[in-house]
Amino acid sequence: MKTLKFTILLVAAMFFTIPAQAQKDEKPVYQFTDEVEVPHTIVQNQAKSGTCWCFAGTGFVEAEILRKYDVKLNLSEMFSVRWAYTKKFDRFVKLHSATNLSVGGEIFDVLYAVNDAGMITDEAYSGLVLGDPNHNHSEIQKCIDGYARVVTQKSNGRVLYETYPKVLNSILDAYLGEVPENFEYEGVKYTPKSFAEKYALDINEYVQFSSFMDQEMYEPFLLLIPDNWTYTMTYNMGFDDMMSEVDHALSNGYTVGWAQDVSDKGFSRKDGVAIVPEDDVNKIRESNPKAFKKMTDEEVLAKQYSFEYIMPEKQVTDEMHQRAYNDWSTGDDHSMLLVGIAHDQNGNKYYKVKNSWGESGPYKGYWYCSEEFVKLHTVFFTVNKAAFSETMKDKLNLK
């Protein structure tokens, strides 16, 4: 009897295990072929730090060093985060709290940090001193924000400008660790400054660019978004020009920093794909007549964001892009790094994007964002201006 029971249980276990294993091994719906891939460094994990800008920016800097010096570094993101906190805090106080003190920022901030403070390896300064395996900035952000309010309330009758930098530095030491005065890399001792000098990048070689209809074409302008706390200027260009220059940069070996919105339903965290699906039911049916033949219109439309099928997409225009910025449906809520160009099995164009959520999703930390998604949800790009076409350099007067 015991043998019979064991056999029944074994068969039952096999019955439930096989489908689970099949599901685990099932290939994702979207199959991509990389056509262009720019050399870059490994995917990292920002975890609960809210510092996507720094992970994307550090990846951008690492890729530039790799391109220029043929050296693959793993730099400390938290060194730049710490630099940003000190600068933001000081600005917050001097502007009487009328500015942004959030954890957010932009890719260009890492270039500012390297230019001002230098850089350090992640091995020498990981920012993980609390015993957690991954970053968690929930408490440090509240602590810094609370202390900033204390300072600006002038409880002592005045702003203690001699004191608050010391207190802030102690908070940063407690949560991120003390920055070493020097560290070793491949047997040589460096300071953050001397390390940045060894693998020097000229900050003047980098620019932000985007496309907005309400700004003068081919001129720099101040893009009004909360996380642009450094007031970095952005070059404006035509909508088609913008996408063409992204392709030109990637095709010529340059990664492209990308500030964008991922709150849209078309960005699937589970599937590693981002699209702008068509909402015309007839066009959806035409894209896959066999799959949608027996469905009602309502059922067909319900599949828009299911990622069960490769959906046809809307053709995004510059008017749609401008409207999305104006009505806040496109905001600056994430930063990632464009590292390549790909196509799905139906020939649709996508950009390969290095994210900072660890090796998650079906593509191990990379997302494939359709050309239409990039058009619609881009806030701006960051690039080495040498990556621009000669025609664009002339238009922007960058020579």
Biggest β-sheet description: 11 strands, mixed
**Number of discrete domains:** 1
Task: Give the second-level CATH assignment, the architecture.
Answer: Alpha-Beta Complex
C-alpha end-to-end distance: 87 Å
DSSP helix fraction = 25-40%
Spans where pLDDT lies below 50 across 5 or more residues: 1-24
Any idea what the radius of gyration is?
24 Å
Question: Under the CATH scheme, which class?
Answer: Alpha Beta
Order of helices and strands: HEHHHHHEEHEEEHEEEHHHHEEEHEH
Which class do the helix and strand fractions yield?
A: alpha+beta
What's the tally of helices? 14
**Average predicted confidence as pLDDT:** 93
Task: Tell me the number of strands.
Answer: 13
Looking at the structure, the CATH topology is Cathepsin B, Chain A
Percent in strands:
15-25%
- Give the overall shape: globular
Please specify the SSE layout and strand pairing.
Elements: H1 2-25, E1 32-37, H2 52-69, H3 77-94, H4 108-117, H5 138-152, H6 164-176, E2 183-185, E3 188-190, H7 192-198, E4 206-210, E5 220-222, E6 233-236, H8 239-251, E7 256-260, E8 267-268, E9 273-274, H9 281-287, H10 289-292, H11 297-301, H12 318-326, E10 334-344, E11 349-354, E12 366-370, H13 371-377, E13 378-384, H14 390-396
Parallel strand pairs: 4-6, 9-12
Antiparallel strand pairs: 1-10, 2-3, 4-13, 5-6, 7-10, 7-13, 8-9, 10-11, 11-12
Helix pairs in contact: 2-4, 3-4, 3-6, 5-6
Give an overview of the whole structure:
By secondary structure, the protein is an alpha+beta fold. The protein is 39% helix and 16% strand. The protein has one domain: Alpha-Beta Complex (Cathepsin B, Chain A). The strands form two sheets. Strands 1, 4, 5, 6, 7, 8, 9, 10, 11, 12 and 13 form an eleven-stranded mixed beta sheet that branches. It is globular and about 70 Å long. The N and C termini lie far apart (87 Å).
